[in-house]
Amino acid sequence: MTQVAAIDRVERERSPSHRLLVTGLSILVVVLLIASLSIGYAPLDVKQALLDALSGRHTLGALVLVELRLPRALLGGLVGFSLGMTGAAMQGLMRNPLAEPGIIGVSGSAAFGAVLTFYFGFAGAFSFALPLGGIAGAFGATLLLFMLAGRGAGTMTLILAGVAINSFAGALTALALNLAANPFAVTEIVFWLMGSFSDRSLPYVWLVLPLMAIGWGLIGVSGPALDALTLGEETATSLGVNLPRLRLQLIAGTAFAVGSAVAVTGSIGFVGLVVPHILRPLVAHRPGRLLLVSGLGGAALTLAADIGIRLLPVQPELKLGVVTAIIGAPFLFSLIFRLRREE
Amino acid sequence: MEIAAKDLAVRFGRVTLLRKINVRIRDGEMVGLIGPNGSGKTTLLRILANLRSPDEGTVSYTGRSAAEVGARRLSQQIAYLAQAADVHWPMRVETLVGLGRLPHRRPMRGFSSDDRMAIERAMVACDVIAFRDRTMSEVSGGERLRILLARALAVEAEMLLADEPIAALDPLHQLQVMELLRCTAREGRGVVVVLHDLALAARYCDRLVLLAGGSILAEGKPDNVLTDAHIARAYGVDVVRGHKDGVPYLLPWLPSAASCRSSSVSAIGRTGQRVGADQ
Predict the structure, then answer these.
(1) Could A284 and B87 be called an inter-chain contact, meaning their C-beta atoms sit closer than 8 Å?
(2) Span B186-204, pLDDT tens digits
(3) ipTM of the complex as predicted
(4) How far is B100 from chain A (nearest CA, A)?
(5) For residue B157, what is the nearest residue in chain A, using CA coordinates?
(6) Do A185 and A160 share a structural domain?
(7) Are residues B102 and A6, on separate chains, in Cβ contact within 8 Å?
């Protein structure tokens, strides 16, 4: 092939389909965000409410929009993006389609941290206690993970350490439930653990947004290294990938993004597992390209599920974590059957 | 570029796998690393590629340590093809070959036209251009090996270290790959290749390093290394020799009377040296 022909091919292959995919998903997320703002239990003229809010008029519509629907929609997008992106990152790092953000124990520990604030009554006394407790739990788990796994730990050791931390956090959460003297606290903890975006305020968004952004940044720059990891750790190293640094970057990124997500919304499972799996063929199985696409897909799925909950004629409102688990589990079953056929 | 290993020793627990290994690889030569199973060929290759550290000794790259050269520069200078390398996601063939350009890419940038030309050259050289648009799950085992070799060639490094690149290839592609590696060396690059096929090693390599019993049993031109005595000592087999069109060839040979005797098989020691009664 001549040089000109090869470069022509390059120009053709600057992946218009990838750009199209990213643009399409971005538009979908924006549409779902608008839909999430428009849909609720009370009728609301969103346009008028938005005008009121922007002009500083404290009307009921403006209050509903800013205090209830906006944080719910924003958190839906942010948490979904975090779960989708970190799921893709963990699957790329572990080179396993069954890996998910919780595999390193961060979700379970963030949930335990938040549960402790309920247990000791801080959650009722101080509104930021709950997310701060969750974030502290996530960071405690990350520190413990690196202490357990040691310096330069291999991927298998990290998985084992993550499983151990998850089990321990689960056991401690159960212990907190077991020892809780107040039955209302138990109910509150159990409902919170199911995961939801309702009744969160805008300050929660501002609290977690910078932490999530740090996580996205750490993960987002690791795309080429994740692509190289497709060839195995040894070959990736020969291509200049610093594996210990990559692991640290991805785990810290996941801790920031997922730890803060769980801290404000509770446990929302399956998004980080299912979304990368569905979208992987659309990026030609490139782990690096999957990161952003999976983030957008996660945001879309979470927003859509949260809208669906509000449209369902079921009261009390279903918890989002329950719905994502019910939708996600059949995907997991189909994935297992597909893997069985490939073996 | 020159890779020089000095007084290398490698231990796994109490077992000494390699000791007092001194090897020098220069530009423009093709060096074959040969030896029986477990003789430490892959370990030595990984040390030369700076993928593991020796327990003793040093490796220098044109007189400088790996730390002085820097990981990024070293990844541009040395291409490594792992033995039976895994491919974890079914990427497109061309995308996978393109991973070889990773050491040359600047952060947040796509492929340059130089990168693209290198990928094209590597795919043409390894005869994989016809299935560039297939995914890795749609190619055969032999095609997969050639794609992985193309990935290593796409680095266009000064030194190519390849661990058994012709295992599982059909005879035509074995010969083509060996020709390709020799051409790569003739272009001025260094090539180190781990081989089990002594005939191909003799025919294509400029120099051979025969490992046995944890150290270098022989090193030099193929004629001087692949003597009957060296082969018997390293592998515990005889050799049949001949000529085809003036080119010498050799064939490892185990006398048929001994081949089915389990005692003779079990009598082959760890270094491959036969100590049975049929010697």
Answers:
(1) no
(2) 999 999 999 999 999 999 9
(3) 0.87
(4) 7
(5) A239
(6) yes
(7) no
